[in-house]
Amino acid sequence: METTNPDAGTQLTIARSGVISGQAEAVAADEGIAAENVREALAAGRIVIPANHHHANLKPVGIGEGLTVKVNVNLGRSQTESCLTEEVDKVDIAIRHGADAVMDLSTGPDLDEIRQAVLDACPIPVGTVPIYQALSEVDDVIDLSVDDFLDVVRRQAEQGVDFMTLHAGILKAHLGLTADRFTGIVSRGGALMARWMEHHDRENPYFEYFDRVLDIAKEHDVTLSLGDGLRPGCLHDASDAAQFAELGTLGDLTQRAWDGGVQVMIEGPGHVPFNQITDNVRRQKEVCHGAPFYVLGPLVTDIAPGYDHITGAIGATVAAVAGADFLCYVTPKEHLGLPDADDVREGLIAFKIAAHAADVARGLPGAQDRDDEMARARYDFDWNRQFDLALDPDRARQYHDETLPESRYRESHYCSMCGPKFCPMKVTRELQGKGVEDRC
Amino acid sequence: METTNPDAGTQLTIARSGVISGQAEAVAADEGIAAENVREALAAGRIVIPANHHHANLKPVGIGEGLTVKVNVNLGRSQTESCLTEEVDKVDIAIRHGADAVMDLSTGPDLDEIRQAVLDACPIPVGTVPIYQALSEVDDVIDLSVDDFLDVVRRQAEQGVDFMTLHAGILKAHLGLTADRFTGIVSRGGALMARWMEHHDRENPYFEYFDRVLDIAKEHDVTLSLGDGLRPGCLHDASDAAQFAELGTLGDLTQRAWDGGVQVMIEGPGHVPFNQITDNVRRQKEVCHGAPFYVLGPLVTDIAPGYDHITGAIGATVAAVAGADFLCYVTPKEHLGLPDADDVREGLIAFKIAAHAADVARGLPGAQDRDDEMARARYDFDWNRQFDLALDPDRARQYHDETLPESRYRESHYCSMCGPKFCPMKVTRELQGKGVEDRC
């Protein structure tokens, strides 16, 4: 393992010192904004650049204020399913289709090996939930010691993980607040922390020993992604006392992380009715002092298993328009099983749509350029250009060619949806005296 | 053809006379609201019940204020694709998956025969765009006489079509307003009307002879769906002068339809950035005096061909939350080709999600009941109940069984997503002392 930048400090401390890091420079160039603006927002904690010193070949990605909305892809085998090569295939698909980050959520055996393969394959930030590995090494979460909880964070930090979900905000005092919920605790990490706390009658070790967490995170520049262990698991449980009590603790921890020189973002729900999403985002931004907000979905209905990439993309768009910075994708298999490679693609594109639609709605400079190019390509009947501009060119080409497979149709001034006589753009072009000569 | 109710008048005139029609009664029962409330909103034009006197076996559907959001499925062969049996298959799929209405947009030969087959197969309202048939009977739209435009409306009304899209609001004076657009006119009907007007240097015949249209519509109780021939075809063209000029005319025509005792709804865009959708809906409601709003999408980005059911479902949810009443689905094949049966299913479920999420967000009484039942079924690990409650039970079952096919897994307290050791709900149930015994 190579320590690429041992004395660099974190992106947060570097920015605070007034220096524009190479990573901040790269992010600014990528986003087409001034590097000094990135540095300022980094220093204030409103942008994070998850970039572990040990993640070789990382192309840095910025998340937060004034930047395009980013999308994370969750990967990883469960205890019952998948294998290493399958997971690396999913990484390839995620990167090919434009993921901005991946989280390896594997919970079976061989976790170090799988994680190394993912890190090696990934030029984008890699995240984990360390408690999954801690639990994989014992029979029951109650067997874990405080040192076990911290040791796994250290090992993963040394390996090069760029951001880690730690459920440090779920406290003993919060657990009773879930009594009236329909679905209790639906966060894996949250439920495991709850079980540990109840059994040992002790406080959450990531909360109690947060300073030790911060020391590790600062040393390697791991960005903390403070998990919402009490996120709602259904519409009924959304925006309840349990969720907001934990959020309050996350706000306090945000300030402590910043005081410790550690980058931090906050995770959010989950399952939330459409009309509550904007308020949820505004509350997070206020309570957590402007730290980047990383949402899972949120899903706007519970009745669409098999299509939760769509219910999630709807909620994610609203959330991102309201200010969420980072979207964790949801696949069509959510609530039903482990996603395969096709599910990864479907879920990722759905959330790329959400992120992009929000960039346009937020008026981010240049966000609509690609839409405008697509519009012009459509009006010109330039099918190949349309495919190139599509979020998923292969899918667009495939669907077009299903009904009109011969290559001459790539030149035609219509498609099979309307046919030539009824094509409105063909008719409009004629009205405008523009070329409509058809080679079919 | 049987005239089931020859002297009944329209749902509008009946309601105005103070009578609660059988259709209004049925809609009220379906929606769980007072029949008098339905009658009042019908009388005021804020609800329509498309129910042609000649559509036998129609189960009436209400669209508008205070009712659940409805979803329409477009079907119909194009000149290049599909056949009758294929279209009837699509009708079956649409009805099985919960479509509230279908539009037969066929443009090839045998239109009367296809339409009759669709009407016979449909217990839900059937809509058409009559100009498609008019054009199918000549070589070029400019060959149509004014009587041709009206005659096809009469023939379809006599056959039993419940609602018809007429592009009566696109006027000669509006056409110049499209000059700066990137994609000109993208409505098939709108482009055809424009060509006819330009060639003959005459006003839109559906506008000029709107009283004759109203006479036909009133006689058979055809609900007019006033088309937005100048709807934007890309984000760039949204909310422009052309779109809103036509909307103004549609507002005038709404009043004329009501004065003539004819039910009317208004069609809307199209392609609209997320942040403009709510204003679009509010403007329509104001300009068109509260007439029901029937939106196509709207699509919140142009760069996702192959996934426009998702871009459309995102926009449709926002529109419906803001007050749109009726959603025209978009399939994954939009912009690429004619949808097949699978595309119909994908598009319909995406828009059922949008409609339902909006019902929940609008606080419609009871709208969240099914979500709450799903939440309880999830927490109880009652997989079969989850499948039954799903918008698409077959899909949910199929996805679940892909990784855990044996029937005993329908009894298990986990799925392949997390596996038993990591299942948060299993852990939470244990904390609550609830049963978690596993039969696997």
Q: H/E element string of chain A?
A: HHHEEEHEHEHHEHHHHEHEHEHEHHHHH
The CATH topology of the largest domain in chain A turns out to be TIM Barrel
Number of helices of chain A: 19
Poorly predicted sequence stretches spanning 5 or more consecutive residues of chain A: none
What does this structure look like?
Two copies of one chain form a homodimer. Chain A has two domains: 52-57 and 67-361, TIM Barrel (Alpha-Beta Barrel); 369-431, no CATH class. The first copy, chain A, has helices at residues 11-16, 22-31, 35-43, 84-96, 111-121, 130-136, 146-159, 172-175, 188-200, 205-208, 210-220, 241-259, 274-287, 308-322, 341-361, 369-379, 383-389, 393-403, 424-431; strands spanning 47-48, 63-64, 70-75, 101-104, 126-128, 163-166, 223-226, 264-268, 293-296, 326-328. With 440 residues, chain A is of the alpha/beta class. The first copy, chain A, has 19 helices and ten strands.
Task: Please describe the topology of this protein.
The structure is a homodimer of 440-residue chains.
Chain A: H1 11-16, H2 22-31, H3 35-43, E1 47-48, E2 63-64, E3 70-75, H4 84-96, E4 101-104, H5 111-121, E5 126-128, H6 130-136, H7 146-159, E6 163-166, H8 172-175, H9 188-200, H10 205-208, H11 210-220, E7 223-226, H12 241-259, E8 264-268, H13 274-287, E9 293-296, H14 308-322, E10 326-328, H15 341-361, H16 369-379, H17 383-389, H18 393-403, H19 424-431
Parallel strand pairs in A: 3-4, 3-10, 4-5, 5-6, 6-7, 7-8, 8-9, 9-10
Antiparallel strand pairs in A: 1-2
